Please model this.
Amino acid sequence: MNYAAFDTYLKENHDRLIEDYKDFVRQPSVAATGQGMIEMAAIVARRLAGLGFDVKVVPTEGNFPPVVWAELGDGPRELLIYNHYDVQPAEPFDLWESPPFEPTIRDGKMFGRGVLDDKGELVARIHAIEAWLKTQGPLPFKIKWLIEGEEEISSPHLHAWVERHTDWLHKPNGSPLDGCIWEFGGYTESGRNKLTFGVKGICYVELHAKTVDHDLHSSLAAIAPNAAWRLVWALSTLKDQSERIQLDGYYDHVRAPTPAEEEILRDQPFEEAAMKAKWKVDSFVTGVTGYDAVKRLYFQPTCTIAGITTGWQGTGAKTVMPAHASAKIDFRLVPNLTPEIVVDSLRRHLDKHGFQDIEIKLLGGYRSEISDVTAPIVQASKNAVRRVEGVDPEMELLSPGSGPMYSLSSFIGGVPVVCLGFGHPDARIHSPNEHILLDYYYKGMRHFGVFVDEFGKI
Amino acid sequence: MNYAAFDTYLKENHDRLIEDYKDFVRQPSVAATGQGMIEMAAIVARRLAGLGFDVKVVPTEGNFPPVVWAELGDGPRELLIYNHYDVQPAEPFDLWESPPFEPTIRDGKMFGRGVLDDKGELVARIHAIEAWLKTQGPLPFKIKWLIEGEEEISSPHLHAWVERHTDWLHKPNGSPLDGCIWEFGGYTESGRNKLTFGVKGICYVELHAKTVDHDLHSSLAAIAPNAAWRLVWALSTLKDQSERIQLDGYYDHVRAPTPAEEEILRDQPFEEAAMKAKWKVDSFVTGVTGYDAVKRLYFQPTCTIAGITTGWQGTGAKTVMPAHASAKIDFRLVPNLTPEIVVDSLRRHLDKHGFQDIEIKLLGGYRSEISDVTAPIVQASKNAVRRVEGVDPEMELLSPGSGPMYSLSSFIGGVPVVCLGFGHPDARIHSPNEHILLDYYYKGMRHFGVFVDEFGKI
Model:
């Protein structure tokens, strides 16, 4: 490739590309509430069509936010790219230093909901492909780009969509695609880019407790059942204070890392002191530290209360006894532990402990995935990072985060996946004041441009 | 008294009095949020001054909603009336069939937040006194009327106010007042009026758990502490599933009813089947029933979760790990169990169970009170009800609800208290669709008018 021409294009178009980036962030697209989803899908589709992609906006089952599917390029080699155009809710708004959907640049950073997760990597790849097409000519292989709109709510309709479009997700001769570039990726605390090859699974449920017909005056609490107490008692049985999940047989599905996995795990970046300082904690849960903390983070399942809603939540005292209480629970899954096992174990656990009245509502989930670290796409990604950064990337076996990687890897014939992106550890994704470092965004576009060159040569 | 003239006055002024009533309800006055408090105090003060009362709007400590103090009448006998002009929050708004602050009449009922609790009894007494003054002449004794603005948030500043105005709350010669008519009162399911002579105490606190500096992505849950879990674990130690409160020594402060108390308790109305039907439950907590349920309701303390707030509470899934979680807890107190004992026991309990990090914020509280059922004001009240209804009222030793009765009874020399009012069991106070039966309001005004006559004669 003519790297100088590519690089010059990005520099000369800097201001326009930043405005384009901001346009993506300005459009709210909150899958949890449905806000702006159709509008956002249309923006993505228009932008890709403008680059020459053959774009389809494809409904999901039940008419939830559609999948944007885009194809460009020719050749025997086929690359899948996975991104999502939905973002996390921006609440609590009052903790944002600038409005979440008005992207704002301060001190070399751009702030906004979704500015990294996942509009950042989506936009950087669009910009890199634009620069490639303008300065290098056609793509040296075929890109198949899947951009969904429900990743932040656990992709409830993606797997069924994949099942329906399995032919698109294979080559014309039926063999698996040559690789997949995943939605995220990024830098370590010390500024080294890192490549990631897997994700933990997730199972996200709501629990509902209902007791009396309507909220009662709390003076009746000596004889009337309280939904908040039912929920608290039920929750307290799920995990004990030593952080051990109490579902029967749960840990039978948890395996230790293999020797090959351990080799990567031991070397991969884990910046314990920096994390503790940022979180303002003296120790991790259970007091775990060092490599034990790494193994815990990547190879142990979790059971997280992500929210509880019940009764009076305003200022001051309201003497009310709640008739309804609900909690959102986020289970992170290790290999062999599937969402189906979680829901089944959870139901049996609640029943066994006398909580037959507690309703479980499954909001979404996916299995964990650890992809092949020896695949050619891994070498192409390493080469790309080294050519831009002058130094090899770190290798991270898997992310503690989750995503529908199983559906787009093992499920479609074992497509090797690489997370190649430009996030940084303090980006506050999912929190107020989400931001990117502009410098990393510039590098991210260059990584992807050089990756196109490298992947074209494998 | 000339009852016919009194009665005719109420009939002839019906429409104006209903409009006056609505004006009280239209003004929001939510102590929990501070909405409309000053405006409401001004409405009350203006209305009483219009009847000839000598009115003072007296600040509480720290400039919280003021106490309205009004005096009218002469004579050696002095009656205290206690009401409050604040109301409970109206949330959740979407469950109201008509807007909470637009009083609406349907099917012989008037709906609105505070239409009973406590603007109903306040307004009925104002209307009765107006009718008395217009048809009977001056009051036969002195009324001292205390109307506070923080009852629904546990009257955090009333006791100190009482301490500062103890001279107003005694006769000029220093002896105790002759009786007190309490804010509420009402009817049984079967339509009998009942008189009540006491209240349970209350202690209302907020618990706060804080762990990390800011909400984190839930993928980090294997190593980062979660405030929601801290709170759930702490809460679950406070009361077990058999409904036994677990604070050390707590039940040492709980006494059985005395034989004299039992005599009233056994006879007092307790409409178990009606309550269960309305709440849509098959049984009370612990399976208690009959007289055991009565003793439990009136002579056992409670520990009620009135609300929990943490993490994501919107629609769908947000993969967040809360840095902060809080719960509102409402303890109802029996004789000998004071708010100070609760806060102290709670702190010791949390510390003992390893929850030194959980902060306790006291929002308010008062002791229980059971007043003298043999006092002359009790006989005057019974006579008043019988003259209007043609049948004696039921006697209820105490209400399971709470109020600052100790401060206005035992604390000021043992003033005997009677709850004489017109609420009905399905009034949904503190819930959406709070309402009164207009027929009971008409009777309530007449009770109070005849009570003035009877109390003047004791």
Observations:
- The first helix of chain B runs from residue 3 to 12.
- Chain B has two domains: 3-197+371-457, 201-254+300-366.
